[in-house]
Design goal:
- By secondary structure, this protein is of the alpha+beta class.
- It folds into three domains: 5-48, no CATH class; 53-169, Roll (CBS-domain); 186-262, Uridine Diphospho-n-acetylenolpyruvylglucosamine Reductase, domain 3 (2-Layer Sandwich).
- Helices cover 27% and strands 21% of the residues.
- The chain has helices at 10-18, 34-45, 51-54, 70-80, 133-143, 163-171, 202-209, 221-229, and strands at 56-57, 64-65, 84-88, 95-100, 126-128, 147-151, 157-162, 186-190, 193-197, 238-241, 244-251, 256-262.
- The strands form three sheets. It has a five-stranded antiparallel sheet with strand order 8-9-12-11-10, covered by helices on one side. A four-stranded mixed sheet has the order 1-7-6-5.
- Strand 5, helix 5 (133-143) and strand 6 (147-151) form a beta-alpha-beta unit.
- It is globular, with a radius of gyration of 21 Å.
- The termini are far apart.
C-alpha cells in the first residue's frame, strides 16, 4: 500500500518532486547552479548508502570514561569542541550513554566533589552498520536525536553516526576553487602530487601507487593514517612511507577528509606497523 503524502519520508517526497516516474532522471529541471544540482543528485543517490559508509570509525571517536571528574571532562571538551560525547562503561568495552555538554552548565563553578558522570548521561541509540542512511535520517527526525552508536553483526561497536554526517552526504563539502573535481577519489595535480580522498579504499590506493601499506586492518586511506599517527591528526601532519609522503590537507575535529600524496619524496624506506 503506497504511503500517504503526509507519511512519506523527506527523501521520497523529494524524489516525487524532481524525478521522472520510475527513473533516476531529473524531470524538467536543470538547475543553473551546480551546487544545487549536486544536492539533488546526492539526495537521489543516498538511498543506496548505508551507515557504515559514512560513519565516524571507532578510532576517531572522542570518548569519555565513567570515572572521569568534571575537570578532566572539561579539558577534553576544550580540546575536541563537540557538543555530545559517548561515555564508556566501567569496563571500557561498550557505551553506556551520551553526555550533552549543556548538561554540565549547572555543575561547572559549583562543588563537583560528588560528581558522578553516570548521573548526567542520556540514553544512547544503537544502530546496525547495514542500516540505510535514509531510514537513519527518518529515525533521527522521529526521535529528535542527533547521534547513534554503530554496531556490527556481532554487536561490537565499530563507529558513530550523527545527523550532521547524513546532511553532509546531501549538501556536500564546500571546497576551495582549486578542487575542480572534488568528488574524485584521486585528483592528479602534477606527475608527483595528488589529492586523495580519505575514504579511498586501501586496496585501491595500493594498486594506484604500487605500494603495500602492510596494514590489512585499515579499510581506507584515512583509517591507515589514523592508525599510523595514533590520534586524530591536524592539517599539516604527515608520514613518510617508502617514497610517498602523505600529508593531511583537510580535516575537522571528527575525521580526515583529504590527503596530499607526494611521490618520489625521498629514498627513505618507512615500514608501517599497525
Amino acid at each position: 500500500m503506497p504511503e500517504e503524502p503526509d507519511q512519506q519520508s523527506f527523501i521520497n517526497r523529494f524524489k516525487n518532486l524532481f524525478l521522472k516516474k520510475d527513473t533516476k532522471e531529473i524531470a524538467g529541471f536543470e538547475p543553473q547552479d551546480e551546487q544545487i544540482k549536486e544536492i539533488i543528485e546526492n539526495v537521489i543517490n543516498i538511498e543506496e548508502t548505508v551507515v557504515k559508509e559514512i560513519m565516524i570509525p571507532k578510532i576517531s571517536i572522542s570518548f569519555l570514561e565513567s570515572n572521569q571528574n568534571v575537570d578532566e571532562i572539561i579539558e577534553i571538551i576544550k580540546d575536541t569542541r563537540h557538543s555530545r560525547y559517548p561515555v564508556l562503561a566501567e569496563d571500557g568495552s561498550k557505551v553506556s550513554g551520551i553526555l550533552h555538554v549543556k548538561d554540565l552548565i549547572d555543575i561547572v563553578g559549583n562543588s563537583s566533589d560528588k560528581f558522578i558522570l553516570s548521573d548526567h548521561i542520556r540514553e544512547v541509540k544503537f544502530v546496525p552498520e547495514t542500516r540505510s542512511v535514509t531510514s537513519m535520517l527518518e529515525e533521527f527526525k522521529k526521535d529528535k536525536a542527533h547521534l547513534a552508536i554503530v554496531i556490527d553483526e556481532y554487536g561490537m561497536m565499530v563507529g558513530l553516526v550523527t545527523i550532521e554526517d547524513i546532511l553532509e552526504e546531501i549538501v556536500g563539502e564546500i571546497e576551495d576553487e582549486f578542487y575542480e573535481e572534488k568528488n574524485d577519489e584521486i585528483i592528479k595535480i602534477n606527475d608527483n602530487e595528488y589529492i586523495v580522498s580519505s575514504v579511498l579504499e586501501r586496496e585501491k590506493f595500493e594498486e594506484f601507487f604500487k605500494v603495500n601499506l602492510n596494514c590489512p586492518e585499515a579499510e581506507s586511506l584515512g583509517g591507515f593514517m589514523l592508525k599510523e599517527i595514533g590520534h586524530m591528526p591536524k592539517v599539516g601532519e604527515a608520514i613518510v612511507f617508502e617514497k610517498l609522503e602523505l600529508v593531511v590537507t583537510s580535516a575537522d575535529q571528527r575525521k580526515i577528509k583529504k590527503i596530499t600524496v607526494r611521490v618520489n619524496w625521498r629514498s627513505i624506506s618507512y615500514l608501517a606497523i599497525c
